[in-house]
Amino acid sequence: MKVAYxxxxxxxxxxxxxxxxAEKFIQEAAEKGAKLIVLPELFDTGYNxxxxxxxxxxxxxxxxxxxTEFLVEQAREHEVFIVAGTAEKDEKGKLYNSAVVVGPIxxxxxxxxxxxxxxxxxxxxxxxxxxxxxxxxxxxxxxGVMICFDWFFPEAMRTLALKGAHIxxxxxxxxxxxxxxxxxxxxxxxxxxxxxxxxxxxERGLRFIGKSTIASPKAEVLAVGSEDREEVAVxxxxxxxxxxxxxxxxxxxxxxxxxxxxxx
Length: 264
Ligand code: ACM
What we know:
- By secondary structure, this protein is of the alpha/beta class.
- The protein has a single domain (2-261), classed as Carbon-nitrogen hydrolase (Nitrilase/N-carbamoyl-D-aminoacid amidohydrolase).
- It contains 7 helices and 14 strands.
- It has helices at 15-31, 52-58, 66-78, 122-125, 154-162, 179-190, 239-243, and strands at 2-7, 36-38, 81-89, 95-103, 108-114, 135-137, 142-145, 167-171, 193-197, 202-203, 206-207, 213-215, 221-224, 231-236.
- It has a 6-stranded mixed beta sheet. Strands 6-7-8-9-12-13 form a 6-stranded mixed beta sheet, with helices on one face.
- Strand 3 (81-89) and strand 4 form a beta hairpin.
- The longest helix is centred in the N-terminal third of the chain and has 17 residues, at 15-31.
- It starts with a strand and ends in a 21-residue tail after the last helix.
- Acetamide is lined by residues 41, 119, 148-149, 173-175.
């Protein structure tokens, strides 16, 4: 199964421009054979908001909003699954840094994840996620979703892997330099594929690091993006490798866990 990241440069508060830019890259990824396509965190709105009002002006309901409708349409047209980060406003007006999961005809809108570990000034605008970590069954594979800074908490990916994820879709807006080095190890620890779709560019003096990364259950870096260009990468994921938690005939990294000795 082929998986893809889209590394792009969203324009702050310019939702329509961002959707049409994403459309071009989704088409490119689909033409290269990707079945699962991951877009960055907040791909439609940009990231470095000044105020809660600014977020409020671009956030939408999920699934009853234009961004989710756009993603559903893209997934239908190209017969792909898409995981994409977006700003969500719930029916009471609360804001979440969320990700939407959609699939082709017969799947449509599949669900959402609300970022659990908010980074820095996100705490001023968004509510912390309250839906838990969820694994989406796309038939051929199980896909766990987490957003950017969630990676800093190994429990996030561990929870998704223990819930059966073979692939971790990781929409991101990374600003610290560590994740491209850490993600292959997270993939190794959990024997999963990871697809980190990061963004590039600068917003109000905040620079994003690019270097979107696809890592294998053996900690191989299968694709890595540049630091400053928009790019699409498509690679083959061998799901058999992600299903096998044995690293030799005597060690199964899930069965060998000793949770009775771990701090909660
Ligand atoms: C981040 O969580 N966007 C750094």
